[in-house]
Each structure stands twice: as C-alpha cells, then as structure tokens.
Amino acid sequence: MGHSAAVWDFRAATEITKDQNGIGQVVLRTPQGASARVSLLGAQITSWRNEQGEELLFTSSKTISKALKATRGGIPICFPQFGNCGSLELHGFARNRMWAVDENPPPLPANDSNGKSFVDLLLKSSEEDMKCWPHSFEFRLRVSVTTDGDLSLISRIRNINGKPFSFSFAYHTYLLVSDISEIRIEGLETLDYLDNLFQKERITEQGDAITFESEVDRVYLSSPNVIAVLDHERKQTYVIKKEGLPDVAVWNPWEKKSKSMVDFGDEEYKQMLCVDAAVIEKPVNLKPGEEWTGRLQLSVVPSSFCSYC
Ligand code: BG6
C-alpha cells in the first residue's frame, strides 16, 4: 500500500458506508492492509481480513438479510442474555438493534487508541426493550484493528438504572476454518462444561485438546484467558485473548442441525466453528452507576509459532 504507520491517518482509515440493504456499516483499515467491517445493525462484525485480504470470519452463503435481524456469521454481540431464557429473544436483543456511532465516548487507556484503526458504537435501552427487560443501560463497543491485523473488541456496559441488574453476554464468534475435522482447540482441556445437548449437564472435559466429529454445543466454565484454535490444514492458529469473560461457548451444528437451519448451507458446518468468549454461568451483576468491561482480542499466527503457550 506504500503507507507507513507513522503517517497513516487512522481516523481517515475509518469509513462509514452502506451495505447492500442500505444499512450503515463501518470499515476499518490498517496501513498494512488488514481490515474489519462492522454493521450498525447489532454492531455485528461482518468481516475481518488479514493483510493478504483473506477473510478470517465465517458468513453463511445462505444468510438472510431481514430487517433488524442478525445475519448468520461474523461476530454477533449477545446481550443481555446468551441462550434462551424467559421472554427475551434468543441470545438477547442487542444483535437485532440499530446502534449509533458514538462520537464522544468516555476515554479508554491510550493503548486502546494509539496505532489502531477503530470506531466506537453505542446502544441505549429503548422503551420497547424496557417492556421485556426493564433496565436502563448504555452499551459502548469499541472495535479496533491493530497494525498487526488483530481484531480487538471492548464492551463497556453501564447501569444507568436506579436498581441493580444482571446479564449474560457473548461475542458469538464464527471462525472460518478449512475443515472442522482438522481443528483442535487448546486451553479448554480438563475444564468443566455445560452440555447444551444434554440439558446443560455439567461434565468434566477428559481429552487432551478439543476435536470435532459430531455436533458440539457446550459452555466451558472458568477458562484461562488465552485459548488457541489450531487449523492444521491452513497451518494457522487463531489466538483468542479475553478479559472479564470467564466462559467459552463452543458450537458446531454438524450435519443434521445444519440441514434444519434455513439460513445455513447443508455442508457449511465443515467451514465454521463458533468459539465465543462469554459470561454465562455466573451473570454479571451491576449496581446503579457501575460499569462492566469485557475485552476480546483475536489474532492469527502461523501454527508453528506458539506465542500463546
Ligand atoms: C450457539 C448455541 O451458541 O448458537 C446454539 O449454543 C445455537 O444452541 C447457536 O443454535 C446459534 O444461535 P442463533 O440464534 O444464532 O441461531
């Protein structure tokens, strides 16, 4: 691209456009050519590309762009719940709402801005949502791409209610993989997990690393803050670093469930794996005026380079 980071105007590298359905989206670029795209619908990350322009997140070819519905892929933001409980919509309403660009966010540490292409988005409680979740909040999301091409997401949720409230949360991350049967997750072995395929039964993981040969729908509890998803065929590793997010949801629908999902191709389960940094088992409790922060940083390294261990 011929630009050095020293003269690169990171602000100017943030472009607001419209997607094919006329919905606002923000494109972030780095001087080295990495990029990310964020939709104002749900603040969903819809693309993350490395310096070679290769896509790193899965999006279904069958995804349905319906008014105010998250699309199938990328990183939908799940709040104020992950899963399905009570009268709230599955995985919460935040992913199905229009967010605004936040022109004046409260400051973050300088490290979260310097040398990064970023945008701040904001969702506030609406009267409509208060009917099923009667709590006032401000949800600020900073999405950044670093000069190394890492994708960083910082969520700050503030209670502006008169009373405490609690919530669960997930970055529902659809990683693009070469072949699910060649994938290994490291960092979750020996942990307890809740198995959604068996009424949330609590099971202790026995294997050395997590591999895939059938449907998986689990929530690993109290995991380390760094985990790795190794893609043997592509010879690359996704490194997932998280803070404030103790749990990790792991999901692959496999063959039968794929066929039952209208917005998902029958064979697409082979090219995706959801590994979601989350707070699920013990919801976050926020007193009036308090703020919670949950950080996710995704990077890709060659599999021989084991910086996470
Ligand atoms: C996973 C859940 O995280 O998300 C699954 O554990 C669910 O049970 C999947 O089917 C997809 O959810 P949705 O709402 O995007 O279809």
Quote the beta fraction: 35-45%
Distance from N terminus to C terminus (CA atoms, Å) equals 33 Å
User: Which percent range fits the helix content?
Assistant: under 10%
Shape summary: globular
How many helices does DSSP assign?
2
- The CATH architecture would be Distorted Sandwich
The low-pLDDT segments are: none
SS-derived structural category: mainly beta
CATH topology: Beta-galactosidase, Chain A, domain 5
The radius of gyration is: 19 Å
What summary fits the major beta sheet? 8 strands, antiparallel
Q: Give the helices and strands as they follow along the chain.
A: EEEEEEEHEEEEEEEEEEEHEE
State the name of the first-level CATH class.
Mainly Beta
Number of domains: 1
Mean pLDDT reading: 93
Number of strands: 20
Small molecules held by this entry: 6-O-phosphono-beta-D-glucopyranose
Properties at a glance:
binds 6-O-phosphono-beta-D-glucopyranose, mainly beta, eight-stranded antiparallel beta sheet, Beta-galactosidase, Chain A, domain 5, 41% strand, carbohydrate binding, glucose-6-phosphate 1-epimerase, globular, single chain, 20 strands, 309 residues, 4% helix
Short description:
The chain is mainly β and 309 residues long. It has helices spanning 127-132, 254-260; strands at residues 14-18, 24-29, 35-39, 45-49, 77-78, 100-101, 116-124, 137-146, 151-159, 165-171, 174-176, 183-186, 192-195, 201-204, 216-220, 226-231, 236-243, 247-252, 272-286, 291-302.
